[in-house]
Write a structure and sequence with these properties.
The chain has about 180 residues and is an all-alpha fold. The chain is built from 10 helices and no strands.
Length: about 180
């Protein structure tokens, strides 16, 4: 599968994704077009070419917006938020995450919200915005409890534990991280 190889062989994946994009456009396949654009963006990410990475994800976003596909738009905003986070671009990252959050909230999709809140909490932790990070992890716990997602619930607990550890509150950190391990 191409997505699995994007890390280890981004150059060859990029070539194959370009071919897939041509085929998708010729066939008029919306989902294949978006997938090929995102795949090119992912390959550029692993080539450490942020501008090209962003370009292809933005193109995919434009296609999703023309189709008024809110779910795909939210996924792309989430990807862009993660990409900006990895490259240390705090404001761009948070802007993209906020857009994804707004869409998932409007769709009332608690499954997506719990995963996104965990991702945002992790990004905020990397940017040393601990209080805001804690808020997002707590929001994730609420969403996960609503939809019964124990995996992201454990991730959120672990994130809270990491924040307590950063704040040298080791007893709370151990207690929360132990709870995450039990789940």
């Amino acid at each position: 599968m191409l997505w699995d190889r994007s890390y280890s062989a981004p150059d060859s994946v990029l070539q194959e994704a370009r071919q897939l994009l041509q085929e998708a456009r010729a066939a008029g396949s919306y989902h294949a077009e978006v997938n090929a654009l995102e795949l090119q963006g992912e390959a550029h990410f692993y080539l450490l070419d942020l501008d090209s990475c962003r370009h292809y994800y933005q193109q995919a976003l434009g296609v999703a917006q023309r189709k008024e596909d809110l779910e795909e738009q939210a996924h792309i905003h989430t990807s862009l938020g993660s990409i900006h986070s990895e490259f240390g671009e705090r404001d761009a990252s948070l802007s993209e995450f906020r857009q994804a959050l707004t869409i998932w909230e409007s769709l009332q999709d608690t499954v997506q919200l719990c995963g996104l809140e965990v991702r945002i909490g992790g990004a905020l932790d990397r940017f040393d915005l601990d209080d805001l990070s804690m808020q997002h992890f707590v929001h994730a716990l609420r969403h996960c409890a609503d939809c019964g997602d124990s995996l992201f619930y454990a991730h959120a607990l672990n994130g809270i534990g990491v924040l307590h550890k950063k704040q040298r509150n080791y007893l709370k950190a151990l207690a929360v991280m132990d709870s995450a391990r039990v789940i």
